[in-house]
Amino acid sequence: MIFHLTMRLQNKVILVTGSATGIGKAIAKRCVAEGAKVVIHGLEADLAAEVVAEIGADKAVAHVEDLTSETCPATLVNLAVSTFGRLDAIVNNAAMVTASNIHTTDLAFFRKMLEVNTLAPFALIKAALPELRKVRGCVLNIGSVNAWSGEPNLMPYSVSKGALMTLTRNLGDTLMREDGVRVNQINPGWVLTENEAKRKREHGLKDDWYADLPKVYAPAGRILWPEEIAAAAVYWLADESGPISGQVMDLEQHPFIGRNPPKDSTTIP
């Protein structure tokens, strides 16, 4: 079987949550560049509208709603089908990223983190399954390298991404076997998104903090760009990934598990 390496998502309809900014926005734009039509989702109406305007109203439609709302998953699926006639893939990208450790985390906050980062993706997969089954579509979950253990001050976030990873492996087997629907996950490392830049500035770093990073954190001299994550996402959304399902791939510039940083490494706040 020969695949053409251009327009790899021709005529596909892809729903990307959290696509008004950051990695989700980059994925949505790359999907359109590869021939797809997209459903944009986010919490900021103005930002979602800007993405649709940038992509083109004939190739994108937006819905603004909290993903944990009971009505949101079905609304997003129905919007894709009513606008573009089908739904080929969903990208569970929307996530809550907030610093917290065992001492600063209460049960209400932990439940909220799991609700947004793990249960909402599950609810969307469940809502989308009847449409995905029709076309032997796929799911791509966007996790984090923190899923393996996580930074001390990202405890609830890391746990939520670890749970998402197990969900990916479980459904990757079950849904492929029963419905012909692939489920995979990519775990990005440190990515220069708008929100990450804002968080680091709030931690007291200068505006161009990412221009001079210790090699221990960024061997390449810089961190990842959203567009690089988007390029990797296309493979998992395209037919060229074949029947591969239930897989998790880390996207970082160094071995994340078992790595031994130099003792004189500088901590990034």
TrEMBL record:
Q: Cross-referenced CDD domains, in alphabetical order?
A: SDR_c
Q: Which region is the signal sequence?
A: none
Give the matching Pfam families: adh_short_C2 (PF13561)
Gene3D superfamilies (alphabetical): NAD(P)-binding Rossmann-like Domain
Family annotation (InterPro entries): NAD(P)-bd_dom_sf, Sc_DH/Rdtase_CS, SDR_fam
Q: Which family does it belong to?
A: Belongs to the short-chain dehydrogenases/reductases (SDR) family.
Q: What is this protein called?
A: Short-chain dehydrogenase
The record lists the organism as Brevifollis gellanilyticus
